[in-house]
Amino acid sequence: MTGAGKTTFISKVTGRTDLEIGHSLTSCTRDIQVIETKIDGQTVSFVDTPGFSDTHMSDTEVLQLIADYLAAAYKRDMKLSGIIYLHPISDTRVTHHATKNLQMFQKLTGEKNLKNVVLTTSMWDKVTPEEGTAREKELKDKFWRVLLAFEAKAVRYAGTTESAQRLVSQMLADNKPFYLQLQEEMGKDNKALRDTAAGREVMVELERLKKEHRREVKEMEDLLRNSAEENRNVVEALKEHYHGRLVELEKTLRDERTMNEEAVRSLRERIEDLESRGRCAVM
């Protein structure tokens, strides 16, 4: 998730201090970064992606970014060795964004690949041992139960270079290289992004958001019609809120249109467009 410490983890494990790391409520990883290092004599590439529920990008944009990268990797027969899913143990509760993030993650990865996932809790220095242990138990017993049943592993990350490298070394030793479900759906089956499991999840969410935004816009229109004209401050506040809801509705409709337009493009066209923008130069 956004703010879980993905870039910080990569900075620790690689020793790179020049990575842009976010220290505010807004997300910092706006594009995909690939950072290489040596671990146990082996060259390891870390792919740092924006999270779903990002502060700057919609889930549609994040999924398209990840899908483009994975499609190019599939074309080059480049497989993953594992996925580190970071969750801050300092979060006092599991939000709607967090559960939605997990659902998207499962659809993107595929059930058969969950055994290659390490569910990693971060930011243990921000909680007491008792608080952290209680939250960890809730994650395992409730929110991560299905993933753990499919042999995903739950690991604590202590925030140190040693802890990060130990986690990665174990993952490399345990896992065989694999393709994500999204890669196979788009590469082998030549499905449009909209028609993949992850894409369908996004389309369901877009439909939900569209209905919610339209309802909010209608409510704001009714409020504006019924507001007393003499209460200028109330009317101005309502207008500002109304325009904000309109912007959100337009963004959702634009994302839906983008997914539908993307469906008519072939995989070859998507990859050629990606290569022309130079995003695959790191691979």
UniProtKB/TrEMBL annotation:
<keyword id="KW-0934">Plastid</keyword>
<keyword id="KW-0653">Protein transport</keyword>
<keyword id="KW-0813">Transport</keyword>
<dbReference type="InterPro" id="IPR027417">
    <property type="entry name" value="P-loop_NTPase"/>
</dbReference>
<keyword id="KW-0479">Metal-binding</keyword>
<keyword id="KW-1133">Transmembrane helix</keyword>
<dbReference type="InterPro" id="IPR006073">
    <property type="entry name" value="GTP-bd"/>
</dbReference>
<keyword id="KW-0175">Coiled coil</keyword>
<keyword id="KW-1002">Plastid outer membrane</keyword>
<keyword id="KW-0812">Transmembrane</keyword>
<protein>
    <recommendedName>
        <fullName>G domain-containing protein</fullName>
    </recommendedName>
</protein>
<keyword id="KW-0472">Membrane</keyword>
<keyword id="KW-0460">Magnesium</keyword>
<dbReference type="Pfam" id="PF01926">
    <property type="entry name" value="MMR_HSR1"/>
</dbReference>
<feature type="domain" description="G">
    <location>
        <begin position="2"/>
        <end position="94"/>
    </location>
</feature>
<keyword id="KW-0150">Chloroplast</keyword>
<dbReference type="InterPro" id="IPR045058">
    <property type="entry name" value="GIMA/IAN/Toc"/>
</dbReference>
<keyword id="KW-0378">Hydrolase</keyword>
<feature type="coiled-coil region">
    <location>
        <begin position="203"/>
        <end position="277"/>
    </location>
</feature>
